[in-house]
Automatic annotation (TrEMBL), chain A:
Its EC number(s): 4.2.1.33
NCBIfam families linked: LEUD_arch, PRK14023.1
PANTHER family: 3-ISOPROPYLMALATE DEHYDRATASE SMALL SUBUNIT 1, 3-ISOPROPYLMALATE DEHYDRATASE SMALL SUBUNIT 2-RELATED-RELATED
Name of the featured protein: 3-isopropylmalate dehydratase small subunit
Major enzyme class: lyase
InterPro entries: Aconitase/3IPM_dehydase_swvl, AconitaseA/IPMdHydase_ssu_swvl, LeuD, LeuD_type2/HacB/DmdB
MF terms in GO: 3-isopropylmalate dehydratase activity
UniProtKB/TrEMBL annotation, chain B:
Classification of source organism: Bacteria, Thermotogati, Deinococcota, Deinococci, Trueperales
GO term, biological process aspect, one: L-leucine biosynthetic process
Protein source organism: Truepera radiovictrix (strain DSM 17093 / CIP 108686 / LMG 22925 / RQ-24)
Cofactors that this protein relies on: [4Fe-4S] cluster
Pathway it works in: Amino-acid biosynthesis; L-leucine biosynthesis; L-leucine from 3-methyl-2-oxobutanoate: step 2/4
NCBIfam families in the record: hacA_fam, IPMI_arch, PRK00402.1
EC number: 4.2.1.33
Catalytic activity: (2R,3S)-3-isopropylmalate = (2S)-2-isopropylmalate
Gene (UniProt): leuC
Pfam family, one: Aconitase
Full protein name: 3-isopropylmalate dehydratase large subunit
Assembly notes: Heterodimer of LeuC and LeuD.
Alphabetical list of HAMAP family matching this protein: LeuC_type2
Domain Aconitase/3-isopropylmalate dehydratase large subunit alpha/beta/alpha: 61-282, 283-407
Amino acid sequence: MARVWTFGDAVNTDDILPGKYAPFMVGEDRFHRYAFAHLRPEFAERVRPGDLLVGGRNWGLGSSREYAPQALKALGVGAVIAKSFARIHYRNLLNLGIPAFTSETVPDALQDGDEVSFDLAAGTVTRGDEIFQLEPPPLFLQEALREGSILEFYRKHGRFPGEAP
Amino acid sequence: MRPPDLAGLTLAERILSVRAGRRVRAGDLVVVDVDQVMVVDSIAPSVIRRIEGDLGGRVRNPERVSFVLDHVAPAANVEVAKAQADARRYARERGFRLFDVGRGICHQVLMEEGLAQPGGVVLGSDSHATTYGAVGCFGTGMGATDIALAAASGKTWLKVPETVAVKLTGTLPAGVSAKDVALSVIRELTADGATYASLELHTPDGFTLSERMTLANLAVEAGAKVGLVPPSGEVRERFSVPEWLVVDSRARYARVVELDLGALEPVVAAPPFVDNVHPLTAFTGVHVDQVFVGTCTNGRLDDLHVVADILRGKRVAEGTRLLVIPASSQVLEAAAADGTLSTLLAAGAVLGTPGCGPCMGRHMGVLAPGEVCVSTSNRNFVGRMGSPEAQIFLASPAVAARAALSGTLTLAEDAALPERAVA
């Protein structure tokens, strides 16, 4: 079972990983221990692989720092579901292969500490006998995600998804 | 190739249509060539690892890649020093441009070096790459993976953004600056009001290049992908602007906001969000421990002039410190040559190496719990500049200088303000 961690609106990249704990400040092997260091200091210690982060509006606003989602990846976060995402962070999440889902209703339905199961392929979150359906990502991104990521797609095909061979 | 039909397109659509070689509209996906890929020191290790580890080590156009060591410059600890040594070595080996410690802040440096041009596409590994929009260049920030892909392939994928147009009319009152305009625009739009969009900022022709940079720089704080200022005035005099890079009156905008410059007043973004914008007068009397003048938003020569004019012949208040970090070595040299630095030093300012300084809380100038900082920078998030219990107010250089002088947030007396005329 995955645990749900809920956050509010406008969770920014300084919240996700404060700048002073960037990997090139504290080391590649330990920076992820400081995820949400100011906002939820217990997070890095207690999060389990597969857990879901649930946010409100404008999740990930702020810096382009990819090590914010890298920290989440290092901790094994299963997916991020938010009402809306900031642009750069959304690209970064998908580039790292962290599923990011936009939903108006699911964030309000889930509560902090909920035990759920999450099915990436089906885009569903299940709590008890309730099933929450998430919208699939755009087609262009699905094409990339089928290869794992846009990085993988480019490496394999020598072009971007949607680009003429 | 026949040029695409650009009738009725926004600036963002025009740039991406010309670059893609076909007419594209908001919502279309394009893969386009990139003129310059900019990498800062803090992202360089990830970018190098992606290029060498994931992408086979090939770089399409090394002359189109710039490394800028600015985020923690000079190095603050051994980890940073090692990462910067690797970045320096790698840039030299691969034939990338290298702007080493002290040259300045990435966006300022790329503009000074002419690497962002009207109608071009420039990607930066820093969110404030929107700054290049000051000259009508499609500048946008991306993370390490996208940046590495762009360096390796010479290209990037983009969804053509819809456009939010901001039409600025009238004349700015004395003592009200481009920073006040930018923060007022963000107050109007909110922090996600232009998410995924191109923010097209129509300024009066008299707006200087520096003022346009301040506006474009802060576009990302409304969530924008780019902040494009139609080239006119100083930009047309100093840059070669393609004939197609013009505002089309038939262009379709997702939203149009009109702002009368004459009605604006000095404002601050109060902690902890950039869109928490209020008249400065709402905070009159708040004690200020540190004033920071610098960053890619407001660390240019004209910004230092404003501060020096207010501080000339006076001293920074007891109990308040003033940290000034010029945005680049060129700004530093010019400020030394014209006496600005002497004025600032005589007033008690502390100088830092050109670079980002304490803007993201990594070194020189971080705040203690309970401290209040007035900063000319672009973010005031919790813990941004050190302690999460510190507070950051974002303000114009004039408001910052006045805070340094009085030790509190306070409105300038009109007489003390420099003359300013924008048609």
